[in-house]
UniProtKB/TrEMBL annotation:
Keyword Nucleus annotated: no
InterPro entries from the UniProt entry: Alpha-L-AF_C, ASD1_cat, GH, Glyco_hydro_b
Family in the record: Belongs to the glycosyl hydrolase 51 family.
GO MF term set: alpha-L-arabinofuranosidase activity
Name under which the protein is recorded: non-reducing end alpha-L-arabinofuranosidase
Catalytic activity: Hydrolysis of terminal non-reducing alpha-L-arabinofuranoside residues in alpha-L-arabinosides
Signal sequence, renumbered to the chain: none
Pfam families: Alpha-L-AF_C (PF06964), ASD1_dom (PF22848)
Length: 500
């Protein structure tokens, strides 16, 4: 018998709304024919697709990271501001694509502003450094009377953008990164750049590059070394992780949330160790600013094998199954369960590139299977994350060892008592769960689920749109006990109330 126990007085932390962020990189068709397509029947006066913007709002995205990603590490931001007709294309070395520079800093930030989305900007610490970073920050946030702020004003934007969240480069531990550095080189540069940026705008939040994966040879030592240089300068350290089913190992894939939790806890331990060494009361938070299901090893040919291409080529356009959606839901459970340390999250990416939203040029936009758990969690997860105790059997996996068969996260709105409970059943059998709430009053009013066994054609809008959420198996209330039934290999979002 599986039991889940919770109480409204036992809380982890408020859920930072930025954990429901996403990512727009100049990669493939994420920007061009993704968010931006002048001439499309839904395009607004600025060239951005209204159908994509409407789906982004439905998805519940609160924040967008930009412009990369690997793309940022040989990006000259100055070449993509000012009159579009004066901008010159350049060769992006990360994805071997000719970038037309039709969308740049102003276009992106004004899009975020119109859509009510917080921007997260990254600076180039690959081929560039301090000077370019402080110039971009001044361009975005500076007041009139300085060089870069006056350039912004000359380009038609008088008021500063007030961008608060800044990434100090991207995946600088990765040998694939243009301008790759070792931990000492990067740590020193991040510290120096961060200090200079705070001179321009002391109110900003800074993200240092953590490991690109827990499987990197430098993992752990990278965090320790980098933070030894910049602990006092930065607010967050980044984490990136992608998960896929390998060689038919369904059990390990379904347990991806356990791997994500282990990753988070190890990075937190590394950060806290540096804090203890420095005798600091400061706590570094996690910016999990790239996460998703991505068939990186089994479907992607690798960026070094890509030919040089123009005109927004189709790169990394994974088509997702219902099983992938269950795993995305399980990853969200991991993020919510660590709300005391995870301040930022970015589902990578927003459109077309391993994305919940797909488009066709001059055609429709639609939801992939992974759209639904993200949108449901973003809508329901309000208020504070709760401590959730799950007593469940374990199952053996090839990659992660023994893992829980059932995982769960919950939130409660302290003002309304609205409860959201998210539960994954990783087994191939229906699970019966007793929901315990000692000393509190609880009710489950309903729910919806993603079922991994929902199989069928997924290509194109009509097929993909058939993969929505289904009604959860009904909960029963009897003698103060709530019984939940979980479909096999499913992710379920229950809603109700919980009060002391």
């Amino acid at each position: 018998m599986t039991t889940i126990t919770l109480h409204p007085d036992f809380r982890v932390a408020p859920v930072d709304r930025r954990v429901f962020g996403s990512f727009v990189e100049h990669l493939g068709r994420c920007v061009y024919t993704g968010v931006y397509e002048p001439g499309h029947e839904t395009a607004d006066e600025h060239g951005f697709r209204r159908d994509v913007a409407d789906l982004t709002k439905e998805l519940g995205v609160t924040m967008l990271r930009y412009p990369g990603g690997n793309f940022v590490s040989n990006y000259t931001w100055e070449d993509a501001v000012g009159p579009v007709e004066d901008r010159k294309p350049f060769l992006d070395l990360a994805w071997r694509t000719v970038e037309p520079n039709l969308v740049g800093t102003d276009e992106f930030l004004q899009y975020c502003e119109r859509e009510g989305i917080e921007p997260m900007m990254a600076v180039n610490l690959g081929t560039r450094g301090i000077d370019a970073a402080i110039g971009l920050l001044e361009y975005c946030n500076g007041e009139a009377g300085t060089k870069w702020a006056d350039m912004r004003i000359a380009n038609g934007r008088v008021e500063p953008y007030g961008v608060k969240l800044w990434c100090l480069g991207n995946e600088m531990d990765g040998p694939w990164q243009i301008g790759h550095k070792d931990a000492h080189e990067y740590g020193k540069l991040a510290a120096a750049t961060g200090r200079a940026m705070r001179q321009v705008d002391p109110s900003i939040e800074l993200v240092a590059c953590g490991s690109s994966s827990m499987m990197m040879d430098t993992f752990g030592e990278w965090e320790r070394t980098v933070l030894s240089y910049c602990y006092d300068v930065v607010d967050h350290i980044s984490m990136h992780a992608y998960y896929e089913e390998m060689d038919g190992d369904r059990g390990s894939f379904l347990a991806s949330g356990t791997a994500m939790s282990t990753f988070i806890e190890r990075v937190v331990a590394s950060a806290d160790a540096i804090g203890a060494q420095k005798r600091s009361d400061k706590r570094i938070s996690i910016s999990f600013d790239e996460w998703n299901v991505w068939y990186l090893f089994s479907r992607f040919e690798g960026e070094t094998n890509l030919p040089v291409q123009r005109d927004a080529p189709r790169i990394i356009e994974d088509v997702y199954s219902a099983l992938d959606a269950v795993v995305v839901g399980d990853l969200i459970i991991s993020l919510l369960s660590h709300s005391d340390r995870v301040a930022v999250g970015c589902l990578a990416q927003l459109v077309n590139v391993i994305a919940p939203i797909m488009t066709e040029p001059d055609g429709p936009a639609w939801r992939q299977t992974t759209f639904h758990p993200f949108a449901t969690a973003a809508r329901l997860a309000q208020g504070d994350a709760l401590q959730v105790k799950v007593d469940a059997a374990t199952m053996a996996t090839a990659k992660h060892g023994d893992v829980p068969t059932v995982t769960a996260a919950a939130t409660v709105d302290p003002e309304t008592g609205a409860l959201a409970l998210f539960v994954t059943n990783r087994t191939s059998e229906e699970q019966v769960v007793t929901l315990r709430h000692p000393g509190a009053t609880a009710r489950i009013d309903g729910g919806s689920a993603v079922l991994a066994d929902h199989e069928g054609p997924r290509e194109g809008k009509d097929a993909a749109e058939s993969y929505g959420m289904v009604d959860a198996l009904p909960a029963t209330h009897e003698d103060g006990t709530i019984t939940l039934r979980l479909a096999p290999e499913s992710w379920t979002a229950f809603h109700g109330t919980l009060e002391s």
